[in-house]
Amino acid sequence: MSYNHKNVLDTEQFSKADLDFLIGKTRDMERLVEQNKAFGILTGKLLASLFFEASTRTRLSFEAAMERLGGRVISTVGFQFSSISKGETLYDTMKMVEAYADIAVIRHPVEGSSRIAAGAVKIPVINAGDGAGQHPTQALLDLYTIISEKGTLDGLTVAFIGDLKYGRTIHSLINLLRHYKVHLYLISPPELALPESYKKGLEGHPISLEETTDIKAVWECDVAYVTRIQEERFPDHREYERLKDLFKINKELILASKKETTILHPLPRVNELSTDVDDLPNAAYFRQARYGVVSRMTLLCLSLGQDF
Ligand code: NCD
């Protein structure tokens, strides 16, 4: 096995060969789960679930993944109830966590914090979202979702809609999609465009992209990845109020598509994705959450060096 990643900190760390390997292993894991054979793979292992920023899905998804493998979980939620509120550094928190657990998953509001956390300890560290930076496990599950729903990635046209500036799930997924022959439509107000650094990262890769403010570009797409405007990241709340309702996806728009457009959303949603889309067969966002658990089961095993 050439895959050799103890930590999962960003999406730059993965080569195309790593992605092929991970997709294959996630498929194996999905099969084990279906056959009720995954429980016990991580018996005796303890996960520290450290969520210093709001989360429902990602935290429960990781914790469900660990429990479904027969491992156990200890957790802390928010700064308010952690010693960080007493002035403890992340370094000290991690040194303590290392004494308790075999692996740590961390979500933190500061970009780059998971790398600092990983640098402090010998146990594997998985980034579950660091500020407006990255969210690599969400991107891996998104990749797995697209391939599972569409059968392939090469040749697809994918739209990213919403907050491309602060949306870390978009930053991470774009970094993975660059390894495939994909055409991207980036649909956002200019104020929330994808940061230049992520665009630069696509150079020399088979991916191509177009930026537009026209929501009808969705009609050209095989996949539409819709995201929430990230209210908590705006330095000026008036700017959020001005931009929050500009792009909305609803059933009428999707039914007018020339293609069978699959709708993804990392969730939570606010107003950008109407609930009238939910009953369309191409609404894949709740299936996406299900794929997330098997993706994270795979990553927990591989980070702990436990093949299956
Ligand atoms: C995303 C996140 O936290 O970045 N949610 C998630 O992990 N599923 C998206 C968001 O908060 O908008």
Q: Can you put this structure into words, describing what you see?
A:
- The protein is α/β, with parallel strands linked by helices and 308 residues long.
- It is built from 10 helices and 9 strands.
- It has helices at 16-34, 57-68, 90-100, 113-120, 136-150, 168-177, 196-200, 237-243, 251-255, 285-303, and strands spanning 46-51, 72-77, 103-108, 125-130, 157-161, 183-187, 208-212, 223-226, 262-264.
- The strands form 2 sheets. The protein has a 5-stranded parallel sheet, with helices on one face. Strands 2-1-3-4 form a 4-stranded parallel sheet, with helices on both faces.
- The model has no long low-confidence stretch (mean pLDDT 95).
- Residues 57-58, 129, 135, 138, 168-169, 227-228, 230, 266-267 line the site of N-carbamoyl-L-aspartate.
- Belongs to the aspartate/ornithine carbamoyltransferase superfamily. ATCase family.
- GO terms for molecular function: amino acid binding; aspartate carbamoyltransferase activity.
Secondary-structure element string: HEHEHEHEHEHEHEEHHEH
What portion of residues is helical?
A: 25-40%
Write the CATH architecture name of the largest domain.
Answer: 3-Layer(aba) Sandwich
Overall pLDDT level: 95
Task: Give the topology, please.
Layout: H1 16-34, E1 46-51, H2 57-68, E2 72-77, H3 90-100, E3 103-108, H4 113-120, E4 125-130, H5 136-150, E5 157-161, H6 168-177, E6 183-187, H7 196-200, E7 208-212, E8 223-226, H8 237-243, H9 251-255, E9 262-264, H10 285-303
Parallel strand pairs: 1-2, 1-3, 3-4, 5-6, 5-8, 6-7, 8-9
